Amino acid sequence: MKIAVIGQPSQLTSFDKLNLNASYELVQDTANLKNYDVFIDLDYDNSDRTILDYTEGGETWVLLNMVKSQLEDEFASVGASYNGEKIIGMNAIPTFLERSTLEYCNPFEIDLSSFPHADLGWETLELVDSRVGMITPRIIFMIINEAYYTVQEGTANKADIDTAMKLGTAYPMGPFEWCERAGLENVYETLEAIYEDTKEERYKICPLMKTEYLQSMI
């Protein structure tokens, strides 16, 4: 089986923690898309690539990081129609990607019976609705956002909040530890996309997080 992967170093580090039963080739573009059985774009959400780069994949399985956007909207935004491509969306944010369960969306109801998820290191598949933020990032990033509000209000510092969350909820990481490992850019931009999609106040970004995000971009 031939596998191609596009991704940033932090994403590749997370991907490499999976128990792959096959090797992969690190690529820079989609020029040879049809030469692979599986093509995984861990960085689709952060790139200038569009769905048009993947509509000529033929029988190639295509997995696109689809947390900050929605697969159907990717087709609509470029005026393309879905024509049976084997494209699914996935949660490829570091810390989530390395789990044994793949969180994915399949809005076009593609038959996944031949999808080699076990060879790619995922023991199980977890289907979620095709929505911005999927499920796990929505929950965890909302908790991180609330933790930022707590620091901004002066109620507790980051270290104390991390300790309290791990001891009180048995989470593997505190919210600020999780934010660092997932990447502040991913947390901020995902929350921003969810808020634009839903207009729900619970996803409105804390000013302290926004300040830290902007400072990190300088």
Descriptive report:
This protein has 218 residues and is α/β, with parallel strands linked by helices. The chain contains seven helices and seven strands. The radius of gyration is 18 Å and the shape is globular. A seven-stranded mixed β-sheet has the order 2-1-3-4-5-6-7, with no helix packed on it. The protein has two domains: 3-127, 3-Layer(aba) Sandwich (Rossmann fold); 136-217, N-(1-d-carboxylethyl)-l-norvaline Dehydrogenase, domain 2, CATH 1.10.1040.50.
Q: What's the topology here?
A:
Blueprint: E1 3-6, H1 9-15, E2 25-26, E3 38-41, E4 61-65, H2 71-77, E5 87-90, E6 101-105, E7 124-127, H3 136-152, H4 158-169, H5 175-182, H6 184-198, H7 207-217
Parallel strand pairs: 1-2, 1-3, 3-4, 4-5, 6-7
Antiparallel strand pairs: 5-6
Essential attributes:
7 helices; alpha/beta; 7 strands; Rossmann fold; seven-stranded mixed β-sheet; N-(1-d-carboxylethyl)-l-norvaline Dehydrogenase, domain 2; 218 residues
Short description:
With 218 residues, this protein is of the alpha/beta class. The protein has helices at residues 9-15, 71-77, 136-152, 158-169, 175-182, 184-198, 207-217; strands at 3-6, 25-26, 38-41, 61-65, 87-90, 101-105, 124-127. The chain folds into two domains: 3-127, Rossmann fold (3-Layer(aba) Sandwich); 136-217, N-(1-d-carboxylethyl)-l-norvaline Dehydrogenase, domain 2.
